[in-house]
Design a protein that fits this description.
This protein is an alpha+beta fold. It contains three helices and eleven strands. Helices cover 28% and strands 45% of the residues. The longest helix has 24 residues. The protein is elongated, with a radius of gyration of 22 Å.
Length: 182
Amino acid sequence: MKLGTANLFITPRGLLFLLMTAPNGGAAIARGNNMLFILFSTLLGLFAATLLLTWVTARGITVTRLLPSRIFAGEIGMVTLRFHQRGRFWPAIALMFQDHLTHDQQPLRQQPPPVMLPFAPPGARVRTHYDIALPQRGWVRFESILLTSSFPPGLSGWYLQSFLYAPSITSVSAPGSLWSIL
């Protein structure tokens, strides 16, 4: 897996959480109330823990893609994704993977569905698959895979766009459709 761009971001839900936490901090400073300081510290600690766990749980994932040699146009083909959680301490939680395909240097109109990995313990190997249907003939190239992590309750997110080495696959006409034309 060749690394691409990685970004840690705050979701709109996280921004709303911070905007609702700020008045508690202001009230704690203005009043000098210890209970408000405890509440403010707890809310800020929850946000910091969510931010850290979002980043930590997605680290150490190795993805391997297994492609069929060819897929017939208009029929369903299966692409297998193998995940290896190389981390020793943290499990992988709430990960989503999405492949991006191109046909003739243009993005495919119908991209494959995202693959969810809800939980993988440390050191685990998980295999899953998704189905794709290619609408036309020609070479289809698997450009990149997008890994998205959002630790519950979803106050922040992390995504990594990686470029896996994968040869292109050929989409050819199905034998049945050739016979119907002739």
